[in-house]
Amino acid sequence: MPNLHQATAGIDHLEQLAMADSPVHRLHPMAKLLVTIVYVVIVISFSTRNVSGLIPFIFYPAIMMSLSGTPYRPILGRLLIALPFSLMGGISNLILIRGTAFYIGDIAISMGVVSFTSIMLKTLLSVFAVLLLIATTSFIEISYQLTRLKIPQILCLQFVLTYRYLAALISEALTMFTAYSLRAPRQKGIKMKDMGSFLGQLILRSFDRAERVYQAMKCRGFHGVFYGKKHSNFDMTDWSFIILSVVAVMFLRFFNLSLFFSKLIG
Fold first, then answer.
1. Is the distance from CB of 228 to CB of 149 less than 8 angstroms?
2. Rg of the chain, C-alpha, whole Å
3. Over the stretch 182-217, which tens digit does the pLDDT of each residue have?
4. Rounded distance, CA 76 to CA 65, Å?
5. Which of 62, 122, 147, 172 has its C-alpha lying 20 to 30 A from 99's C-alpha?
6. CA distance 120 to 55
7. How many CA atoms lie within 13 Å of 36's alpha carbon, on the beta-carbon side?
8. Beta 100-104 vs 107-110: how paired, if at all?
9. Rounded distance, CA 71 to CA 17, Å?
10. Alpha carbons 161 and 166: distance in angstroms, whole number
């Protein structure tokens, strides 16, 4: 089953990218997390009617990708996964919101189209920023910094375990699918009549696997407390990164560069 093979290989790809060495990777994890949170909040705060104000915000992911050496392909591939969810919400605006926003020549652009474009841009920019954070900072480090921000430790632990053992669940499904294919070599995929049994067995095998993993963790001293690598305090580079990034996004929030340049050119 190629899709499962690709999913198993792709889950750890961002984690491997986070192990690289670059000026962005060397920044304090908390600094990158705080800037990402501010960036996402500012992007989401835009009105659904303001599309031009969102366009300059592409500067942050573009600069971060350039400085960190993160390849575009794995990031863009994961961006596409988030689009269908926003697409469903945006389509309803296309249908329900009918007022005219502006004209391009003789073509009337409705408020629904503007709202739809704004939703898609917000999704792209927000997911882009989060993926870059994961691609430059290990997931364990991110979760540990979240505990320092007073996020409940049990939630952070669940995030880490889910992320870490999702590949194990996919591996179980792949093993079951291989066994199924050997018993029905001419069958493409799983028959609908067998799907219930297949999913039921997958759930039982997952419970058994989870119990064995938990017992192994207890044997190694696990008692429900999440530990992460302790970093030194912010240095001048970290503070400069936070201040410059926050000032830049706040400036773009209240000063529309797209409208400014369009008026300048006009």
1. no
2. 23
3. 877 777 777 777 778 888 888 888 888 878 888 888
4. 12
5. 122
6. 12
7. 25
8. antiparallel
9. 9
10. 8
